[in-house]
Amino acid sequence: MADFRRKKLLYVFNVFFDVNQSGTIDGKDFELAIEKVCKLRGWASGTPQYKRMYDSLIQIWDGLRNKADSNEDGQVSIDEWYLMWDDFAKTPDKPLEWQTQYLKFMFDLEDSSGDGAIDVEEFAGVCSCYGLEVAECRKAFQKMSDGKPNVTYEQFQNLWKQYFISENPSDPGNFIFGKTNF
Ligand SMILES: [Ca+2]
Ligand SMILES: [Ca+2]
């Protein structure tokens, strides 16, 4: 796998999945992610929105673990992570179910107004809740949207695919997780 693609995969692993920075992904990371995004949205535990968020992230974790945890230790290591995305790159039109669920989850989370498109404020709001600098998120949005004010779901799906398979640093899909260079 090319170094550039490996760096992108490592970045998503570290920032969006291994939330407690333990070096592997497991259920605890997802529980922290649930707290993080519900706090961002102002959803208290016990509310229907909290429950929906909880259910969809736990379902994503179950799907990820089932496919990627090949040594069955209950955790997804960085090597297991690389292996799974290397398989994805071979047949990007046949994603795993959890991968599609996560793509949709991220889009819906970012589209906080629910109008079917992401704008720069929505994008920066979510990325900064994962600890990224707002200024860099804004720059990343300009690059991924090619200077346009919005990114639709259809566009996002293509950018997403590009993120995980592209080895060309100038492709717009490289910027969908808020980082401008690798
Ligand atoms: Ca972890
Ligand atoms: Ca494992």
Automatic annotation (TrEMBL):
Recorded superkingdom: Eukaryota
One function term, GO molecular function aspect: calcium ion binding
InterPro entries named in the record: EF-hand-dom_pair, EF_Hand_1_Ca_BS, EF_hand_dom
Positions of transmembrane segments: none
UniProt keyword annotation of Metal-binding present: no
Domain EF-hand positions: 98-133
Keywords, in A-Z order: Calcium
Entry keyword Translocase: no
Name of this protein: EF-hand domain-containing protein
Source organism per UniProt: Pyrocoelia pectoralis
Lineage summary: Eukaryota, Metazoa, Ecdysozoa, Arthropoda, Hexapoda
